[in-house]
Design goal:
Among the domains are: 2-198, 3-Layer(aba) Sandwich (Rossmann fold); 208-292, N-(1-d-carboxylethyl)-l-norvaline Dehydrogenase, domain 2, CATH 1.10.1040.10. Helices cover 43% and strands 13% of the residues. The protein is built from 17 helices and 14 strands. Helix 6 (127-138) links the parallel strand 5 (115-119) and strand 6. Helix 1 crosses helix 3 (51-60), helix 10 (200-231) packs parallel to helix 13 and helix 13 packs across helix 14. The model has no long low-confidence stretch (mean pLDDT 95). Bound molecules: uridine-5'-diphosphate-glucuronic acid. Residues 122, 151-155, 211, 214, 218, 252-254, 256, 259-261, 263-264, 267, 323-324 line the site of uridine-5'-diphosphate-glucuronic acid.
């Protein structure tokens, strides 16, 4: 099949590359000449493990190309995907659909009859129908089929998620659109990946409800972690104990500094807004949003408490600033609240992140940047793990301790074994389980 991907952001690029790997002919189109030039040179504007190799292979195989020229790309296309951004609208938390409607207008004026228009961007309920109406109004003679195809990719694991998804969801109301989508996902269909065909509205809600549910699960375990700290229980064992119940499931029960990224914060807000507008408020999701925002501030307080109640004049080493590992994405990362708060309270902050520095540098002026994990330890009063990059999991604790002013490790991702850290002579403050402090380093209550 011939596929056009409109938008080479995260979703567009990953989907475009993966569809070409399925054997389809894919043209990715973007308005940004810089992006297209980079892609034509084989450079990837985002950090996603494995994407560069896959892109290169498919470009070489002649199945994948990049262009600014939509007219040229449109010729003979079976499907065109809208994969443009839907940022949070300033002021009211709703999704800004300007780019989606602009893309719809361009499609109406460029593509041949018979094409299937697939909306992949995350959009509020009613948008697929509204986009279809908008295309019809823009060009009443244009004959096309509409489909909603929300994506469930995780940054850092996007290729695996695309190639081996738990399910594919399609909202459509024509046999033609269903046929096209089945052909596009044929390799998965043959592998018996469940494909759910439903209405536009149901597909739209599935996407938001999935993200809101996962955000709720994380927030739930984060609050249970707070309780565990107060009563000397261990949240990791609690998560295991409840996760073994098949009805609960063990995934997304890792307590941490709060969820971030480009999806959960934006999508929970947009869902809450849609629900309010429809007079069916999702009060649980509203609480989740509040609890998660508060959590990031609380994490800064936790670090300060672990340092004995003040970080004035102290040097704090930070390991990891991205919202999660294997990405350079800083959007809504907990570090964006934690680091500035520590600096406001008089700390000197030295941070290291394997991929995030370029993005983070301009977002957090005043932070000193180190070249590796050990550099942050020099004369530090504490080290704080904010993102669980694999390379932080097995640091040489003796070496760290030798460099630090005082051996305090605050582990906001629970990547260390408290016994081992304590044995090495550290004070250790994890999430949701008892802290192990050296006799002369008592934390104050956060
Ligand atoms: C999320 C969903 O997982 C994807 O299915 C979805 O397609 C995507 O949003 C989207 O809507 O585009 P992503 O934002 O890439 O993917 O990252 P996640 O792996 O879901 O992590 C989100 C945040 O939750 C991170 O800050 C992570 O550290 C945090 N998290 C996750 C936890 O604190 N605990 C967990 O157990 C899991």
């Amino acid at each position: 099949m011939r596929v056009v991907m409109l938008g080479t952001g995260y979703v567009g690029l990953v989907s475009g590359v993966c569809f070409s790997d399925f054997g389809h002919d894919v043209v990715c189109v973007d308005k940004d000449p810089n992006k297209i030039e980079k892609l034509l040179n084989g450079e990837i504007p985002i950090y996603e493990p494995g994407l560069d190799r896959l892109l290169d292979q498919n470009v070489k195989a002649g199945r994948l190309s990049f262009t600014l020229d939509l007219k040229e790309a449109a010729k003979g296309a079976d499907a065109v995907f809208i994969a443009v951004g839907t940022p949070t609208r300033r002021g009211d938390g709703g999704a800004d659909l300007t780019y989606v409607f602009a893309a719809a207008e361009e499609i109406a004026n460029t593509f041949d009859n018979g094409v299937t228009v697939v909306l992949k961007s995350t959009v509020p309920v009613g948008t697929n129908r509204a986009v279809r109406d908008h295309i019809k109004k823009t060009n009443p003679n244009f004959e096309f089929y509409m489909a909603s195809n929300p994506e469930f990719l995780r940054e850092g694991a996007a290729i695996e998620d695309f190639m081996r998804p738990d399910r594919v969801v399609v909202g459509c109301d024509s046999e033609e659109a269903e046929y096209t989508l089945r052909q596009l996902y044929r390799p998965l269909y043959l592998r018996e990946t469940p494909m759910l065909f439903t209405t536009f509205e149901t597909a739209e809600i599935i996407k938001y409800a999935a993200n809101a549910f996962l955000a709720t699960k994380i927030t739930f375990i984060n609050e249970i972690a707070d309780l565990c700290e107060k009563v000397d229980a261990d949240v990791q064992q609690v998560a295991k104990g409840i996760g073994l119940d098949g009805r609960v499931g063990s995934k997304f029960l890792h307590a941490g500094p709060g969820y971030g990224g480009s999806c959960f914060p934006k999508d929970t807000l947009a869902l809450a807004k849609t629900a309010q507008e429809n007079k069916a408020p999702v009060t649980i999701v509203e609480s989740v949003i509040k609890a998660n925002d508060n959590r990031k501030v609380k994490m800064a307080e936790k670090v300060i408490a672990s340092c004995g109640g003040s970080v004035e004049g102290k040097k704090i080493g930070i390991l990891g600033v991205t919202f999660k590992p294997n990405t350079d994405d800083m959007r809504d990362a907990p570090s964006l609240v934690i680091l500035p708060t520590l600096m406001e309270r008089g700390a000197t902050v030295v941070a290291y992140d394997p991929e995030g520095r370029r993005e983070a540098e301009h977002m957090m002026p005043g932070v000193n940047w180190a070249d590796d994990a050990y550099d942050v330890a020099q004369d530090a009063d504490a080290i704080v793990v904010i993102t669980e990059w694999n390379q932080f999991r097995a640091l040489d604790l003796e070496r760290l301790k030798g460099m630090m002013k005082s051996p305090l490790l605050v582990d906001l991702r629970n990547i260390y074994d408290p016994n081992i850290v304590a044995e090495k002579g550290f004070s250790y403050v994890p999430i949701g389980k008892p802290a192990r402090m050296l006799p002369d380093a008592q934390p104050v209550d956060a």
